[in-house]
């Protein structure tokens, strides 16, 4: 797939998530050095794991689109939010095998909602797992 999609309005965001089974959203800011440090890796994850309609990556500048950040309780940058079921539910099931270290925010149902901070290991582990799932589903369907 391509570079992450830059989202600038709530309407764009809603439309984007409605088109993909899984969405990984990078909430960032121009003034945030860790955000800038994570940007190339996030782009690489999008290129290597993104699959149209299945797994997509988006970037939201919190200063330009604060409504989306507020809706999901984003208070620190960078934060990486995980949505599934075409935006109908937030959080994803991930194996509890120790691959997600500090920085993961889990919901009451045990699903991973987001990763806060610039730890590439956590983000890479989750993106790789989602990429594996969508590839496996595509292979099974073929």
Characterization of this structure:
The two termini are 19 Å apart. This protein has one domain: Glutaredoxin. The protein is globular, with a radius of gyration of 14 Å. A hairpin with a 5-residue loop joins strand 6 and strand 7. 36% of the residues are buried. The mean pLDDT is 87. Strands 1, 2, 3, 4, 5, 6 and 7 form a 7-stranded mixed beta sheet that branches. Helix 2 runs parallel beside helix 4. The protein has 142 residues and is an alpha/beta fold. The longest helix has 22 residues. It comes from Diplogelasinospora grovesii. InterPro entries: Thioredoxin-like_sf, Thioredoxin_CS, Thioredoxin_domain. Keywords: Disulfide bond. Belongs to the thioredoxin family. This is Thioredoxin-like protein.
Which key terms come to mind for this protein?
142 residues; alpha/beta; Glutaredoxin; seven-stranded mixed β-sheet; 4 helices; globular
């Amino acid at each position: 797939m391509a570079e992450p999609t830059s989202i600038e309005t709530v309407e764009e965001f809603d439309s984007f998530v409605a088109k993909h089974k899984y969405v990984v959203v990078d909430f960032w800011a121009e003034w945030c050095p860790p955000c800038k440090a994570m940007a190339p890796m996030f782009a690489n994850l999008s290129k290597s794991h993104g699959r149209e309609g299945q797994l997509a990556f988006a970037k939201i500048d919190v200063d330009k689109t604060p409504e989306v950040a507020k809706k999901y309780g984003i208070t620190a940058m960078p934060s990486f939010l995980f949505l599934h079921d075409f935006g109908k539910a937030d959080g994803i099931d991930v194996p509890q095998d120790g691959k997600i270290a500090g920085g993961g925010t889990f919901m009451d149902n045990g699903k991973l909602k987001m990763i806060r901070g610039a730890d590439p290991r956590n983000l890479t582990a989750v993106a790789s797992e989602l990429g594996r799932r969508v590839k496996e589903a595509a292979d099974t369907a073929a």
